Design the sequence.
């Protein structure tokens, strides 16, 4: 039986993890809608994560601005929001680096190396999602009831959409 925290965590992962499929190369996702006009974004703190590709960074920044607008983040919530947004940027950078590394070596990999490479990416997604969820906990606690309802709705919609079977390519 799934607990509410687990369901919320899965919804968070589906909503906020960069839009790369495990078996895809590092090509950027294009399904992110354009961002609404929003307030000036908070500056990102320095990070030790590798720099993601320009396209990946643009997609993540677009997602960050869209969520900031949809959740109505207030000035008082900006420190927590900034930490959460930086976790998203760091996750994008680390997974982008793993996909780039895999793309450069996959043609010469044995089946065993391929499986281990895939496992490394899966572990990175899990670790990144845990860091993102931890950053989100404090932010969520600071949200008003209206903002929490908006977040819950957004995450439920994203999780529902992600749970739908995809058409075969």
Sequence:
């Amino acid at each position: 039986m799934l607990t509410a925290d687990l369901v919320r965590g899965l919804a968070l992962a589906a909503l906020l993890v960069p839009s790369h499929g495990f078996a895809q190369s590092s090509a950027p996702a294009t399904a992110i809608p354009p961002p609404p006009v929003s307030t000036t974004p908070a500056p990102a703190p320095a990070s030790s994560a590798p720099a993601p590709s320009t396209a990946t960074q643009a997609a993540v920044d677009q997602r960050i601005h869209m969520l900031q607008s949809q959740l109505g983040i207030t000035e008082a919530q900006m420190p927590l929001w900034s930490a959460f947004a930086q976790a998203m940027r760091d996750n994008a950078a680390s997974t982008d680096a793993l996909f780039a590394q895999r793309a450069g070596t996959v043609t010469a990999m044995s089946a065993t190396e391929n499986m281990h490479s895939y496992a490394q990416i899966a572990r990175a997604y899990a670790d990144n999602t845990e860091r993102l969820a931890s950053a989100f906990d404090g932010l969520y606690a600071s949200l008003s009831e209206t903002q929490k309802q908006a977040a819950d709705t957004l995450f439920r919609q994203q999780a529902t959409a992600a749970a739908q079977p995809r058409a075969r390519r």
